[in-house]
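EamA domain-containing protein, Photorhabdus temperata J3. C-alpha cells?
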Amino acid sequence: MFTNRKVTANAYGLFSGVFWGLTGVLLAILLKNNILSSYFLIPIIIAFLNDLISCTYMFIYLLYQDKYRTIIAITKNKKYWIIVLAAMLGGPIGMSCYILAIQHIGVGYTAIIAATYPAIGSLISFCLFKDRIHLIGTLGLILAVVCTIILGYSTTTPTISSRTGFLFAFICALGWGSEVVISSYGMNNNIPADIAYFIRQLSSSVGYIILIIAFIFSLPNAIDIFSSFTLSSLLLITSLTTTVSYLFYYRAISILQPIRAMALNITYTVWAIFFAYFLLDESISIKLFILCIGVSLGSFLTAINPHNIKKLILDLK
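C-alpha cells:
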C-alpha cells in the first residue's frame, strides 16, 4: 500500500543524493586550495576530519533529541557491531581504496568502477537477504547504473593503467555496496537510523585514526586547514552537508531497504554536475543532460512499485 511514510522515505533517498552531490563539489573546491595541494595524503586526512566533525554534529543532534540513553543502550547490544563493520567497509576501506585507485589508474576509470557499487550492493542484498525488486525496478536500476558509469567516464579522463589500481577501485565499490546492505541489516535489528549513522561516523573516525597511524600518515598537516578561516569554514560546511546526506541516506535505507535507497542515492552524479555548473562554472553538455535524465528515470523506476503508480496519481489529485 502506498503510504506517506514511503513518500517521505523516497524524499530522504533523493535528498541524500542532492547533498552528497554538493559535498563532492565542496570537497573538490577544498582540495584545489594551494595550501593543501602540495600534500599528497591530504585527501585521507580531510576524509578523516570530515567524518570526525560530522560525528560531532550528530552527537549534538542526538543530545538535543534526548537520545543519549538510547546510544548507551544500543552500545551494550552486540548487534551494534554490525554498524561498526559497515563503517569500516564504507569509510576507511572504501574511501581509502578510492583514493589509491585514483593514484594508480586516474579518476576516470576509478569513477566508472566505483559507480557500480549499487549493483554490487543489490547482488549482495539478494544473495544474503533475498531482497527482490520487480522487473521494472530491476531495469530501472540497470539504467541508472549504466548511465552513471557513462557519466563518470564522460566527465573525466583516464591517464594510467594498472592492475593494482583496478583492484583498489573494485574493493572501493565492494566496500560501499557492502556498507549499505550491512547497515540495513543492523537497522532491521532495532537500531534507529539516526543512532546507526552516529555509530557509523564514530567508528569510521576511529578507523581513519588507526589507518593514519598504521601507515605513518602525519596529522600535523591538518593544522594547515584550521590555520585558514576560509578552509576551516569550508570544511565545517562540507561536513554539515555530509551529515545531512548520510542521515537522509540511512533513514531511506531503514524504510526502503538497500536496493531502492541506493538507486535514489546515486543521483548524486546528476546533482554534482549542476552544483559544479553553478559553483565551479563547469559547462553542461547535451550528452551529460541526457545521461542525467537517464539516471533520474532509472532511480525513479527502481524506487516506486508499478502497482502503486495509479494510487499515487489518485492521491495527488
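The two ends are 17 Å apart (CA to CA).
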